[in-house]
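Limitations
The structure tokens in this dataset are predictions for the assembled complex, not deposited experimental models. Users should treat interface geometry with appropriate caution, especially where small molecules or nucleic acid strands are included. An illustrative entry is reproduced here so readers can see what is and is not provided.
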Amino acid sequence: MTLLVVGSVALDSVFTPFGQTADALGGSAVHFSVAASLLHPVRVVGVIGNDFPVDQLDRLTLRGIDWSGVERVEGESFRWKGKYSYDLQSRETLETRLGVFANFQPRLPAGAEEAKFVFLGNIDPELQLGVLDQVKAPTLVACDTMNYWIQSRREPLLKLLSRVDLLMVNDAEAREFSGDWNIHRAGRWLLERGPRRVVIKQGEYGALLIEKDRTFAIPAYPLEEVFDPTGAGDAFAGGFMGYLARNGVADTDAMRRAMVYGSTMGSYAVSGFDIQGFEGVALHDVVERVQLFEDLTRIPAAERIQ
Amino acid sequence: MTLLVVGSVALDSVFTPFGQTADALGGSAVHFSVAASLLHPVRVVGVIGNDFPVDQLDRLTLRGIDWSGVERVEGESFRWKGKYSYDLQSRETLETRLGVFANFQPRLPAGAEEAKFVFLGNIDPELQLGVLDQVKAPTLVACDTMNYWIQSRREPLLKLLSRVDLLMVNDAEAREFSGDWNIHRAGRWLLERGPRRVVIKQGEYGALLIEKDRTFAIPAYPLEEVFDPTGAGDAFAGGFMGYLARNGVADTDAMRRAMVYGSTMGSYAVSGFDIQGFEGVALHDVVERVQLFEDLTRIPAAERIQ
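Predicted assembly:
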């Protein structure tokens, strides 16, 4: 059950109240694959410039991540620079340099077209569609997007929505895309555009799995220390898709469990800069934290009130 | 197991994007008691001015609420006027007139000093302490407060905290009181001031029950239509305390279930102006919605990952 992610491999410069990074390993495909690789082998498709510190990718190799699908081309790597507020509740993008991503045309490496679980990370929806065209018979295709594409590529994004099984966005994106501030109406609006399920990430408040007639809500793991929210959403997606690929299933029950694995990975992601939150984290740690989620949300049985 | 609430009985003028009210039935004790009365008899202690439209209180009598502890005195009733933003996420207080509440000295009516479950609604902490002094041997004392008292009555509020079993506030209040933006650290700070448990209400994101070594999180009921958030927190408290009083227990398991009843009552409260969200709601409706919460939060069992 091959798990495939296409997305950015980036150099991030992040400012938080607790410190800062400069040209650190980042990007949606990186955060996704680091989280997913704890659960299932993952193949990455992306692009880097010839200025990319390739030794950084050794950190992915050590995790068994197959990044042979990451092309290295002439030009500057994708760079993002951002600054968080004192309470990490909001962030400002200081600079986005697409670099080699501007002309990227994803080509799947041999065998990747057989992938069963596909995550189309946050890139131009035209490119996401281009990847989708190359995949033969996927079990589950999920995609992410962001305000930039919602504003500038609405038509291809709507076309993409009609072709994916699951959309995974944060609450601000769901509100902006649908034009509705009520998150449940926004979720229904998105469902009506094609995907059978919508996952809405709500940061410190958790996440929702919205289906036509049912909703599932999972809180965020209670953390007293949060260092850097960058990549938390992609790590969530990695845990979610990694769990499904590992088990080879994509029904509602499996997706609800996948939400717990996603939330667990998100909690590691925010605990350090770049991918440092995952340092020293092994599968048994993940399993333990998943069990803590069960206690966090457990409603004890009781005598029924008549 | 007498359930007692002391709090405001008010005339509210509320502006929302969906309509407005003028001098409508409101106040913490009203919203609390309407919700609680679906689960357990409740006695109200409060004060109204001689301008209060007493027929409005018939709406409480019809629900079996004992408001014989509400004094009617010379002067103007407590009035609050507020306006919500387009997305109901924030509100502005346009006017607060304490009226007869300025000189209120709560006196428990005969028998109320035997109350086992006591909720000290959002009033001056000196008054909350005054009520607490009159109660003989309560099983559970819970209190609410707000930014106004946190800023102006910090010392008596800290004294109150050291004497109650449970503090119930919203996230902004927890942050302001503790001076910490991280909600879990804020919760721990509050626990260290006395109460064994802290409930933090997070509006559309649900609520947390924080104990020394454990946290429980419950999402809000998914609502596509929300009309007026006024009183939702008090209705939550009413459901929470009503459930505990009905069962005569106050352990962690009971409190977790009480959180579900609280959330259920909050979902009715926001569905209409003043107490209209509860019109036509019977106990069996409450029980049904509580069961829906169980589905909303259910993590399906699965083979353990090794």
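Some entries come with short summary sentences. For this one: Residues 114 and 293 of chain A are 34 Å apart (CA to CA).
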